[in-house]
Write a structure and sequence with these properties.
The complex is a heterodimer of chains A (158) and B (291). Chain A has 158 residues and is an alpha+beta fold. Helices cover 33% and strands 15% of the residues of chain A. Chain B is an alpha+beta fold and 291 residues long. In chain B, the strands form four sheets. Chain B has a five-stranded antiparallel beta sheet. Chain B has a four-stranded antiparallel beta sheet with strand order 11-12-13-14, sandwiched between helices. In chain B, α9 runs antiparallel to α10 (241-254) and α10 (241-254) packs antiparallel against α11 (265-287). Chain B is globular and about 55 Å long. Classes of the chains: A alpha+beta (158), B alpha+beta (291).
Chain lengths: 158, 291
């Protein structure tokens, strides 16, 4: 089947089998490998991308379901060579160690901050509860999101 | 993991969808949020030859209260229930429930219709809907029919829906003036199915006695369970501590859990007793105006 998808604003097209999963379309057909495959069983959230602005686990969506829709991946965060405040926050606050969960964490956090621009720590922890990290213990990830929330609140609006 | 090959159909209307289901028969599965079906297909526990994706059908995702009845479209995402002011303020049982289903990312796609139609006794909305006395609306080639939720779950992963029918709406009676509810779930971690969970919906009379009690149990049997004896023990009584304890014991007696990694059958039965008592107390607190 023919699918047309906008990935980070750029139009892509491909002929795919209906059983192709969205994460494979993004990584293997469009060659955008920032999105990771972790557990492949809808648990870990490493494959999280935005589908029409909603955070979804791209290992649990068929590529054909994204036809004529907008996808945003971790590659879409950086603008004109400038890191997004979330990416900056993960650097500044040491929000990653091995980095495997990071693309998913960033996309979940991006959607989360759009909905909760001034979150409490409790809201952040619930907001990222569908994304697993086995390195950090989450403390620095929470700090990184707080860093980004503060920066975005100061008008670094993206 | 790659699912077995299938043919993909994306009908634009209920009529088109039921026509497809009629012609494809048992070889077809309906794709709603896909958060249970796609994992099953990836594990090859399900290998449907055809998928009928109902996501492009307009009008199936809405939350409205009309004439004292809450109508929830089958394609309503769990996260939309969670964000709904109407659900948060008027339907505490649904609000409690949608917050503890899977995880926030899964809830962005998972639908309330899918949660029910999947017929999984470990899903959370079945118990909730049993407690609320909800009605399922199914659309088929011969039109719509309404199924009381108490008759909907017919076996493990089996419902009263026919192969050519689509669950299109859930109808919930509006809450009375003195109502209270709670859904309490014990899970090992966020995203896990319940070790056990209990849904309680109470309607009190002016004198504080219990006019109606609905109690549903999650993941302690082959189907979701309506704890009818426990409900009867509350009806017409003032829900004092002795009555609460008696109802909790009857709810535990109705549970038919099996042992697994989440615990022994005995443990789960006792968990139902404890959670029922706590849910009843919380529902009473809320009926009295508490949160």
């Amino acid at each position: 089947m023919r699918v047309q998808v906008a990935v980070n604003g750029e139009k892509h097209e491909a002929d795919v089998e209906p059983r192709l999963l969205l994460v494979h379309l993004i990584r293997e057909v469009f060659r955008q490998t920032g999105t990771h495959i972790g557990c492949d069983t809808t648990h870990c959230g490493a494959c999280t991308v935005l589908l029409d602005g909603r955070a979804v686990k791209s290992c649990t969506v068929f590529a054909v379901q994204a036809h004529n829709r907008q996808i945003m991946t971790v590659e879409g965060l950086e603008q004109n060579g400038k890191l997004h405040p979330l990416q900056e926050g993960f650097m500044e606050e040491h929000g990653l160690q091995c980095g495997y969960c990071t693309p998913g964490m960033l996309m979940t956090s991006y959607a989360f901050l759009k909905k909760h621009p001034a979150p409490t720590e409790d809201q952040i922890r619930h907001g990222i509860s569908g994304n697993l990290c086995r390195c950090t213990g989450y403390v620095n990830i929470v700090k990184a999101i707080q860093y980004a929330a503060a920066r975005l609140g100061q008008g670094d609006g993206r | 993991m790659i699912p077995a090959a299938f043919e993909y159909h994306a009908p634009r209307s209920i009529g088109e969808a039921t026509q497809l289901l009629t012609s494809l028969g048992e070889d077809a599965k309906i794709l709603s949020g896909g958060q249970s079906l796609i994992p099953l297909m990836k594990l090859r526990l399900a290998s449907p030859r055809h998928l009928v994706d109902i996501n492009a059908i307009p009008g199936l995702a809405s939350i409205q209260e009309t004439d004292g009845v809450l109508r929830i479209g089958a394609l309503t995402r769990e996260s939309d229930l969670e964000d709904s002011e109407l659900i948060r303020t008027r339907y505490p049982l649904l609000f409690d429930t949608c917050k503890v289903i899977a995880d926030p990312i899964v809830r962005n796609l998972a639908t309330i219709g899918g949660n029910l139609a999947h017929g999984d006794p470990a899903n959370d909305h079945p118990a909730t809907m049993l407690a609320l006395g909800a009605e399922i609306v199914a659309a088929g080639p011969r039109g719509e029919r309404r199924i009381p939720v108490a008759a909907f779950f017919t076996g493990p992963f089996a419902t009263d829906l026919k192969a050519d029918e689509i669950l299109v709406e859930i109808r919930v009676p509006g809450p009375g003036r003195r109502s209270g509810a709670a859904y309490l779930k014990l899970e090992r971690k966020i995203g896990d199915f319940a070790t056990a969970a209990v849904a309680v919906q109470l309607e009190l009379g002016a004198d504080g006695s219990c006019e109606r009690a609905g109690i549903g149990l999650t993941n302690v049997g082959e189907t979701p369970i309506k704890a009818t004896a426990a409900e009867a023990a509350l009806k017409g009584k003032r829900p004092d501590e002795a009555t609460i304890q008696r109802a909790a014991e009857l709810a535990a007696a109705a549970a038919r859990p099996s042992a697994d990694l989440r615990g022994s059958a005995e443990y789960k039965k006792d968990l139902v007793r404890v959670l029922t008592a706590r849910a009843l107390r919380k529902a009473l607190e809320r009926a009295a105006g508490g949160r």
